[in-house]
Amino acid sequence: DLDFPGGKVGITSQMRFISETNGRRVECYRVLGDDGELLKNPPMQVGEVLAVKMYENMVALQVMDTIFYEAQRQGRISFYLTTMGEEAINIASAAALSADDVIFPQYREPGLLLWRGFTLQEFANQCFGNKADNGKGRQMPIHYGSNKLNYVTVSSTVATQLLHAVGAAYSLKMDNKNACTITYFGDGGTSTGDFHAALNFAAVLEAPVIFFCRNNGWAISTPISDQLRGDGVVVRGQAYGIESIRVDGNDALAIYNAVHEARRIAISEKRPILIEALTYRAGHHSTSDDSTKYRPLEEIEWWRKTRDPVPRFRKWIDGNGWWNDHRDLELRSSVRKQLLQAIQVAENLDKPPVADLFTDVYDVLPPNLQEQERLLRKTITEHRKDYPTNIPV
Amino acid sequence: MMGIMRQKVASGSFSQPLQRIRPAILGLRSYSSSGKQMMVRDAINSAIDEEMGADPKVFLMGEEVGEYQGAYKITKGLLDKYGPNRVIDTPITEAGFTGISVGAAFHGLKPIVEFMTFNFAMQAIDHIINSAAKTCYMSAGQITVPIVFRGPNGAAAGVGAQHSQASIYVMYVLTSDLPLNFWQCYAPWYGSCPGLKVLTPYSAEDARGLLKAAIRDPDPVVFLENEILYGESFPISDEVVDPNFTIPIGKAKIEREGKDVTITAFSKMVGFSLKAAEILEKEGISAEVINLRSIRPLDRALINDSVRKTSRLITVEEGFPQHGVGAEICTSVIEDSFDYLDAPIERIAGADVPMPYAPNLEKMALPQIEDIVCAAKRACYRAVPVAAAA
Fold it and tell me: Which cofactor is recorded for it (chain A) (predicted)?
């Protein structure tokens, strides 16, 4: 063996380039079959109470998406982005985490916030940007955040949150906390420099962070084949010295188990883990997008009909005798009612007050902002009729 | 980035950068008076050291800050004292360690991020602006980002003979190995961004007091140092040495009182302006020199008070003229004190070109003491105004 910086390496007289693939693609971890049948008992069993809660949250997420999407189409909110097809990723990973774990989301993970107790009213308040919005009306719809629930405010910049998650994980490690961070991103996000920097730094700093890639095949209109080469995202972990796993992103039990184990390793062994969940973005990228322009309608329909993660999970809990049609109808109708009510309340609330324009730029309002605020109030007072009445001055 | 430099160190010669000695820099020595002195390098080092000692949440991160003790030896001794968990040598990705530091700040730590130079910070500007500066506002105050981004900013020319051997070595690494063309002043860049505070120390007192204030501040602070000033010594009082010493952020300092013309400057240009004021004094012009100290918030009140007294204003900066710090100061004076002006305001700034390499071109690209003197004379009607001469 030869000694080089970084360790000993063996020698060979045979010149051989390493292949760009391992011959066959990395397998996808599955617990549930297409018909909701248990393929094999997983290490972490999910009991009735937890399973029902997971299903109820997936349904709530579906209904929320449907209603907010319609509200956007009716022009009542400016923008929306659904989680369709990725409900299992959202809810099952949320269920496997503990409340102290800090979430650094991209934007297609509101289910984690829902799981942690963000109310339908709070979601509606944010989307409508009213005075009850805990984001003070400063960001467009779906950019949720909650300090209390350890869900870091969504930022539209793609993949910057990966590095933040590494930094926060390092902070958790320094404080010897029994917690990790988890960060979500899409397949498109893996092309950013931040993805590579984050994986490299996390490995070097030995930070307890879970990188969760939702590989849903599409970055807006860019298919995965135009996004990257090689066997997807999972194989990238090894090059950075990171343990990695590929899971079926439409299999709630597989995701639950993978995240549960990833969390255990990250915290007990103080190191990062990469999870690649294979799934399909069954909705459009956002309300600014019509994905039938660049992918066949049949493809979308096929995924919705045969691979949807929610019915698959439903079949499993049905089979266990934990759920039935009656409860299903009741749940969907109840969530729908709550949401319609929440939207009505959110819509009728006043908009954020004038003061909210200026606070939080700095810890303390600097003189120039004090001056701007004073002038704005003066102008509004002098020209009251030109300003909307639903903005408290 | 360091990788490139190191390669050159191995193969290059040490003699070349020493030819670029600038007499103007040597002149700064004359400001050292008797009594206690401190080098700016030591002022920064002691400020970091004391704040790390006082608050376990403060940590330092950057390329070569640990084992190598900083490309400019600013972080000397800190790794030994605080260990590798708090003085972190990072892989080479500005965007990477900046993003990580921002994440650590989200979660309650107080990172000090060292950029080998602010030119490299361009790779990380997404995290400085979009992640650090805006998150408090975007999260509606739920997340604060107590972080300091620091490092040398602006042109790096001129290695004075009085510098220590160590500093000649490190300056060699940076000044001679990198194309200078991307060296520039970033004060206007960060100064235009709400959510950031931007500080530009000149003296040892500034460096200590402002850096300690920056580390304690709950908002993100961009701390723009100057490579040439690292090796300069300044007189300091006992108060400055006190561990509790800080300088309020947002306040400028009158470095020299005068009544005929106001000169605003920051960083290295404060020294140039003081030198110019000495020359002007011999010609009977009393110049007031304002050391801005803080680019954002800008001390509009102090600048305008001075202009109302002198009725004349020259702004000095190494950065580009268009949309520069001088342009902002001009506007603030026009808005607040227009009627007090007795002469057109003049901006002294770097030439509107990327930094050239050849010493003669480089000298022409940067403001010189003579430029300040001439501008002040024009403002005081002792020379023909530029507009009239054209």
Answer: thiamine diphosphate
